[in-house]
Design a protein that fits this description.
The complex is a heterodimer of chains A (202) and B (363). By secondary structure, chain A is of the alpha/beta class. Chain A has helices at residues 23-35, 88-97, 112-141, 143-154, 160-174, 178-193, and strands spanning 14-18, 38-42, 55-59, 79-83, 101-104. Chain A has a 5-stranded parallel sheet with strand order 2-1-3-4-5, with helices on both faces. Chain A starts with 13 loop residues before the first strand and ends in a 9-residue tail after the last helix. Chain B has helices at 18-36, 59-69, 81-94, 124-135, 147-162, 181-190, 201-217, 238-241, 270-286, 297-302, and strands at residues 3-10, 43-50, 74-77, 97-100, 113-115, 138-144, 166-173, 194-198, 228-230, 249-252, 319-328, 331-342. In chain B, helix 4 (124-135) packs across helix 5 (147-162) and helix 6 (181-190) crosses helix 7 (201-217). Classes of the chains: A alpha/beta (202), B alpha/beta (363). Chains A and B meet through helix 1 of A and loops of B.
Chain lengths: 202, 363
C-alpha cells in the first residue's frame, strides 16, 4: 500500500536555492516564505550551511558536475531542478544530479508547493526502495548460508523439509532473521569442526 | 480634491451562490460610500462591475475586461475557490490584485491576492477542536464537488483520525444539485456524532431541510445530539433556510452583533464584514500616496509605512478571531470565541498539535 504523503510538517523546514541572484530566486523565495520555509540563497558554491537543508533547489541551466558535496545522484535531501532551457542535455544532467522534481523558469506566483511535496515523496519513495533492495540483496547473499545450514541440520538425520522447519523455528526463538539464524548454525558448526563457516555471513 | 480611483467588482448576482455574492457586494458598496464621504481621505472609489452570473468560465475573461477596459488595478470579487483559481492567472498577467472576502480551504498565498476572510486554522480546526470533545469523534462529511469540499474534508479527516476519531462516510454533490437522499440514508445508517457540511448553495439548503426532517423522525438526529457543522454558513443564507437552520453550528470571524473585528460597523454577516474590511484596507494603502493606485500589491505593501495595516506581507492573509456560533431562533448565538490568530494557509506556522485521543473509563 502506498503510504500517505507528508503534508503538515513543512513549517520551519530549510530550503537552499543554488542559483545566482535573479528575479526567479526572489519569486521562489517569496513562495517558500509564504509556505513557511526558511530560505537561503547560495551561488556558485554549495556552502556548508546547505548540508543540513531539508530541500535543495538548484539551477539546471548553469549546473555542473562536482557542484554538490555528495556522490553524484545520491543527495541526502529532496532536490528540485530549476529548469530554464529544456535542452535534453540539461535535463539529463539534472536527472543524474538526482532531481526529484522540477520547476520551470521563470518562476512566478506558483509551483513551489507542489514541487516540494512531489520531491519529498519521490525522495522518501527512493529511500524506502533503496532500504528494501539492500535488505533483499543481503538476504540473497545469505542464500548459500541457508543451504549449508539446512544441509548441516539434515545431516543429523532429518529430512530436508524438517531441517528447514527447524531452522525457521530457531530463527523465531532467537528473534532474528532466517538468514541470520542460518549463519549462526553454520558458524557454530564451523567452531565445532574448524571449518570455514563464517565466510558467508553478512 | 479627491483622486478618482476605479475599483473592479466581480460578483455573480445570479446563480447558486448569489446570496453570498450580494452580502460581499453590500460590504464593498458600504465601504465605498463611507470612503467617498470621508473628507479626510484624498480618494474616492468608482465601481466597475462585471457579473459572471455564476458561470465559472466567465470569471477570467470578465476580470481581464475590467483590467483592460478601465484603469482599475484592484478587483474585489469571487465567491467559490474555483472562480478564484480561474482569476489568479489573469491578475498575474495584468499586474492586478484580487481581494477575496470569503472563507476558503487554504494552501494558497498568491502574490496577487489578499485574503480577508478565514482559512482552515481560523475556521475548520477551531470548530473541530470544539466539536469533538463536546459530541464525540465519529463524523460524516459532505461537500460540493470542487476544491472547497474536497480539501475541507481531507483536512477534517486528517484532524479527526489524528485525534483517534473515525470518518463514517464522505459524499459529494455537484454544485447546484439537490440530490441529497443518499447522504441522508447513509447518515441514518451510520449514526455519526456530528456532520461537517461543506455543501454550498441549494445543495446545502436541501440537505439541511432533509436533515431537519430526519431529526423529527428520529431524535438521534436532532441538533443537540448530532449537530451539523459548517465553515461557510453565515447570516446571509439564513433566509433561504428558514427553520432548517435551527441548531446549525458555524465557525467564522464575525457573527451579527459581535464586536472586535473588523473594528467598526454593524454588518449583516462575516462576508459583508470581510468585503468591507478589504475595501477599507485598500483605501488605507492608497490614501495620500498619489499614483499608488497603479502599483502592484507587493509594491503597495512594501511602501506601506503607516500603522494599521491588516495584511501579513508573507502570506497576504489577515489576523481574525475564530467564533463558534449556533443558530437559535433564526439568529446566530455565540458559543465560544477563540483568540485572534493570523491566517496560516499552509498550516506551517502554528504547529497542528495533535489532540490527545479521548480516553474513556471502561468498566
Amino acid at each position: 500500500m502506498r503510504r500517505p504523503i507528508r503534508i503538515q510538517n513543512l513549517g520551519g523546514a530549510r530550503a537552499v536555492i543554488l542559483h545566482r541572484p535573479h528575479p526567479t530566486v526572489q519569486a521562489l523565495t517569496r513562495q517558500l516564505t509564504a509556505i513557511g520555509l526558511e530560505v537561503t540563497q547560495v551561488w556558485p558554491d554549495f556552502t556548508a550551511e546547505g548540508i543540513g537543508a531539508d530541500f535543495v533547489f538548484f539551477d539546471a541551466d548553469m549546473g555542473h558536475d562536482g557542484m554538490f558535496p555528495w556522490a553524484a545522484g545520491q543527495p541526502p535531501m529532496p532536490m528540485i531542478a530549476l529548469i530554464g532551457s529544456e535542452a535534453p542535455g540539461r535535463i539529463e544532467w539534472s536527472l543524474r544530479a538526482g532531481a526529484h522534481a522540477q520547476l520551470l523558469k521563470p518562476v512566478g506566483d506558483n509551483g513551489a508547493y507542489s514541487a516540494l511535496l512531489i520531491a519529498r515523496d519521490a525522495f522518501d519513495a527512493q529511500h524506502a526502495l533503496s532500504a528494501e533492495i539492500a535488505d533483499l540483496r543481503r538476504r540473497l547473499d545469505g542464500r548459500q548460508t541457508v543451504v549449508r545450514a539446512v544441509t548441516l541440520l539434515s545431516a543429523r538425520g532429518k529430512s530436508e523439509a524438517d531441517a528447514y522447519a527447524q531452522l525457521r523455528q530457531m530463527a523465531m526463538a532467537w528473534r532474528i532473521s532466517f538468514e541470520d539464524a542460518a549463519a549462526r548454525i553454520v558458524a557454530s558448526h564451523g567452531q565445532d569442526g574448524g571449518a570455514d563457516g563464517q565466510r558467508d555471513q553478512g | 480634491m479627491k483622486r478618482r480611483i476605479e475599483l473592479g467588482l466581480l460578483y455573480s448576482r445570479t446563480g447558486s451562490y448569489s446570496l453570498i455574492s450580494e452580502a460581499c457586494r453590500t460590504g464593498v458598496l458600504a465601504a465605498i460610500a463611507q470612503i467617498n464621504a470621508d473628507p479626510a481621505l484624498d480618494l474616492c472609489f468608482v465601481a466597475v462591475e462585471r457579473d459572471p452570473g455564476g458561470n465559472v468560465d466567465l470569471y477570467g475573461p470578465m476580470c481581464a475586461d475590467i483590467l483592460q477596459a478601465s484603469t482599475a488595478r484592484h478587483v474585489v470579487g469571487c465567491v467559490t475557490s474555483w472562480s478564484r483559481k480561474e482569476v489568479i492567472p489573469t491578475v498575474e498577467k495584468f499586474g492586478g490584485t484580487l481581494w477575496y472576502a470569503v472563507p476558503y480551504e487554504g494552501f494558497e498565498a498568491s502574490d496577487h491576492v489578499v485574503y480577508t476572510h478565514a482559512c482552515p486554522n481560523q475556521h475548520l480546526l477551531p470548530l473541530l477542536d470544539w466539536a469533538m470533545p463536546a459530541y464525540g469523534r465519529r463524523a460524516y462529511l459532505t461537500g460540493s464537488n470542487y476544491i472547497w469540499g474536497w480539501e475541507m474534508n481531507r483536512l477534517a479527516r486528517e484532524r479527526i483520525t489524528a485525534a483517534g476519531g473515525e470518518v463514517l462516510g464522505e459524499r459529494y454533490l455537484p454544485i447546484g444539485s439537490r440530490d441529497v437522499g443518499r447522504m441522508i440514508e447513509e447518515i441514518r445508517a451510520a449514526r455519526p456524532a456530528f456532520i461537517l457540511n461543506s455543501l454550498i448553495g441549494p445543495s446545502s439548503y436541501e440537505f439541511l431541510a432533509a436533515y431537519r426532517a430526519l431529526g423529527l423522525q428520529d431524535a438521534a438526529f436532532l441538533p443537540d445530539r448530532c449537530p451539523v457543522l459548517s465553515c461557510n454558513m453565515t447570516e446571509c443564507e439564513l433566509p433561504a433556510l428558514g427553520p432548517a437552520a435551527e441548531g446549525l453550528v458555524a465557525a467564522g470571524p464575525y457573527f451579527r452583533g459581535v464586536g472586535g473585528w473588523p473594528g467598526v460597523g454593524n454588518f449583516g454577516s462575516s462576508h459583508e464584514a470581510a468585503a468591507f474590511a478589504a475595501v477599507r484596507e485598500l483605501a488605507r494603502l492608497l490614501a495620500h500616496r498619489p499614483g499608488a493606485e497603479d502599483l502592484s500589491l507587493s509594491q503597495l505593501l512594501a511602501g506601506d509605512c503607516r500603522p494599521g495595516g491588516i495584511i501579513d506581507p508573507e502570506t497576504h492573509h489577515t489576523v481574525l478571531p475564530a467564533i463558534i456560533a449556533r443558530v437559535e431562533g433564526g439568529a446566530f448565538r455565540v458559543i465560544e470565541r477563540r483568540a485572534d490568530m493570523p491566517g496560516d494557509p499552509y498550516l506551517s506556522r502554528g504547529r497542528m498539535a495533535p489532540l490527545a485521543p479521548m480516553l474513556r473509563v471502561v468498566s
